[in-house]
Each structure stands twice: as structure tokens, then as C-alpha cells.
Amino acid sequence: MTVSLEGKVALVAGATRGAGRGIAVELGAAGATVYVTGRTTRERRSEMNRPETIEETAELVTAAGGRGIAVAVDHLDRDQVQGLVKRIDAEQGALDVLVNDIWGGELLFSWSDRLWEHSLDDGLRVLRLAVDTHIVTSHYALPLLIRKPGGLVVEVTDGTVEYNAANYRVSFFYDLAKTSVLRMAFAQAKELAPHGATAVSLTPGWLRSEIMLEHFGVTEATWRDALAQQPHFAISETPAFVGRAVAALAADPAVSRWNGQSLSSGGLAQEYGFTDVDGSRPDAWRYLVEVQDAGRPADVTGYR
């Protein structure tokens, strides 16, 4: 599938790595100018202490065919976010796509501690990083986005409305963070619709992010070696897959039909016809319900 976003301006908030980087690069591949933000630069690392930087992401955007612009921003800092939006306005005069992908909570929540056992400071920090950052960013960016009709807001989360409503997401603070983002997209959709703009939530499937590959001790080239540890990892997808989902939405003149909905990369691949880098269309959330959660042996036949 080929989409064109020539002349479009996007802000991917939280584009240092993972889904944010994949989204930024695919928007660039479609020709967009993409502002990529995060806290880790070549001069300074965030509390995540990871090697990936926003400068690298911007360079990947440009190499893909767009124009990548790296801006160091802490999205909890109102002045920094307001300054970012003012800069986009001064340099571009418009904002067509806002992607709220800020997260950064991997090191702060526990999969095993219950609410009363969990570090309260760490749990509240997770909510600040995963929820407050999105609110602050939308607060300052939406007036620019609605200046002309057709704007798109994508709230990136983990899980669909249907899945998260029926399933506890293993940790109190993780569950609350990811479900809150779903509701933020719904609420923004109601407020943006009269201005001709659209808001959706979007979840990737099992993402082969830098951190996930590192967890399994594999690389993108050798990711299938991880199936010996976790056979269901066979349904996993690259960050490019969710990136192509965002690019397809941004290029759809009828994108308003999705307003307020909870979407997945796999579901949108069926709708728009894009594929992951290997030519497959992994439908992770259907697989999760019908195979993994159902206790069936790992088998991606019919799911990618």
C-alpha cells in the first residue's frame, strides 16, 4: 500500500524508540514532516537509561523520505510542551497529526506486586508518565490542530477497549494507565468532532521493540530464536506495522468514520491492506483471545 502525506505536519510525542519511532518513520516514508520528541538525546539520557535517541529517530524519518525534526521535550513540563507547539506553529503554521505515544514506565511498575504492595511513588509516577503527559500535550497542541479541518489525534495504548474491559492487565498501575488512554481518545473525539477533527486510540500487538528484543536476547534479524522461550511470540510484529497503521489513517480522507473508536494495527491492516515488513498481517489481539488466552498451542496459521 502506498500513501502520500506530502505537505502534512505531524508531531509524534514519545518517538525515541518502540512504537513511537516506528510511527514517526512510517509517517516520514509517506512524505510527512515529523517532529519527534522525547527526553533522551545524544547529550543526555532519561531515567530509562536507554541508548536510543530522538536524533536517531529524526534521521530515520529523513532517510525514509520525510523530514525529521528532533526536539528534546519532557511532556510533563508545560512550558516545554507549549514552547514545542509554538515552534511548530512558527515553522509550519499547521499541525495535521498528533500522536501521543509517551510512556517510559517500563522500569517503574511491577507485574507481581499488588496495589498495597507496590511502591506508591513508582505507581503514581507511572500514571504521570503515561496519562498526564498525554493530557498536557493535547492541551497545548489541539488549538493548532483544529485550526483547519481534517486533523487527526492518535492515542497509543496497549489493548483494545473490548480486551481491556474484560481482562485485568496484570498490574494495577499498568491496567489503569493503558485503560485511561483509551478513554482519553474517546473524550477527545467528542470535543474534536465539531471542529472537523478525529481522535482514535490505537494499540499495536506484541511489539518487537528494542526493549522486548533485548528481553529475549535476540535481534530483529534473529527474533524467531525467542520462540523457544515463548512460542506465542510468533504473533509479534515490528514497530513499522503500527507505524503503517497511523500513516494509513492520516492519509484516509474519510478517517472521521473512526472517530472515538479503539483500533489495532492488525485490524487496520485488514481494512487498509498494508503489511508488516515481512509481508504478513499479524492479527495479535484476535490471536490473543482465540489462541493464547484460550490455552491452545501456539499456531499463527490464519492469524498473520
From TrEMBL:
InterPro entries: NAD(P)-bd_dom_sf, SDR_fam. It holds the Pfam family adh_short. This is Short-chain dehydrogenase. It comes from Microbispora amethystogenes. The lineage of its organism: Bacteria, Bacillati, Actinomycetota, Actinomycetes, Streptosporangiales.
